[in-house]
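The records we work with from here on pair a chain with its fold. These numbers are not coordinates but entries in a learned vocabulary of local backbone shapes. To see the layout at work, look at the sequence and tokens printed below.

. . .
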Amino acid sequence: MGFLKEFAESGNLTTIPSNYIFCTSTGDDDDDQVVAEAEEVIPTIDFSLLKSGTPEQRSSTIRDLGKACQEWGFFMVVNHGVPETLREEMLRGCQSFFDLTEEEKQEYAGKHVLDPIRCGTSFNTSVEKVLFWRDFLKVFVHPQFHSPDKPPEFREISLEYCKRTREVARELLRGISQSLGLEEWYMDTTLQLESGFQILIANIYPRCPQPQLTMGLPCHSDHGLLTLLIQNHVDGLQVQHKGKWVHVNALPNSFLVNTGDHIEIVSNGKYKSVLHRVVVNNNATRISLALAHGPFLETVVTPAAHLVDCENHPPAYRGIKYKEYIQLQQSNQLDGKSCLDRVRVLN
């Protein structure tokens, strides 16, 4: 399977191949195309108040964080301390990787979902009947750090960027733990976050001549706890809120953060992983960079004991090793919360 970028940029492409045509509607009235616009205000978290604010400011921010997790499963983080220059260098590094020749990128094609470096197209071409308008690079960066050798600057920049992003994620998770009424260090210790799994996912969504007929990525939730995303100055992310799709217009120098399936599991369903998707456009190429943060791969993740009450709040999910969950999700098609549904307890 070749890469989409080369094909999309190969000449005067005016129509897309039939194997990229994706129908997003499941009914006659196309309800799932309705997008809530300006009336929806996406929550914003001031990281500096969580990290170094007064006790009152921190408590208020933790409440805001809990509300964002419960009502949206999505929020933007500002004043996070990761230099804008580093973020821009990282995005340029991703662009440089995607600009490599097809032969150079094939060196990193990978064969298995747990290969530490893997690039390709769509999501999982081995099982997909319809392809998505996207190429990707996936790199395991913690607890063992990996990096492609090309472009040469990628390793050093990504090492620093991933370290800084991991620090932000862990501080957010401490706040989320407290918002659930758990100890601040609950996730740190129970999920062994010192050895937590962090994966870098770079995406390129080339200009598309018929964007209304295809998708960058379909509706899905993420594995893990939190995903922190940045992008070039091209939007395309949509999150589902109250049954409608909301366009995400990123604030300058912010992280876009969504909750993953393992936040839903740990919280015993109080906080939901957010469904999201990516749309494409015919004006500009979008590049995004997601850092997904999860437990230690060998951890069996279960609902927190303090959030389980056999009479009123029985366990909503059965325990599963995080590594097995990733293999399950990455080996199948992306389809809403189909992976989470496999560990859901039906009472």
Summary: The domain at 79-341 is CATH 2.60.120.330 (Jelly Rolls). The radius of gyration is 20 Å.
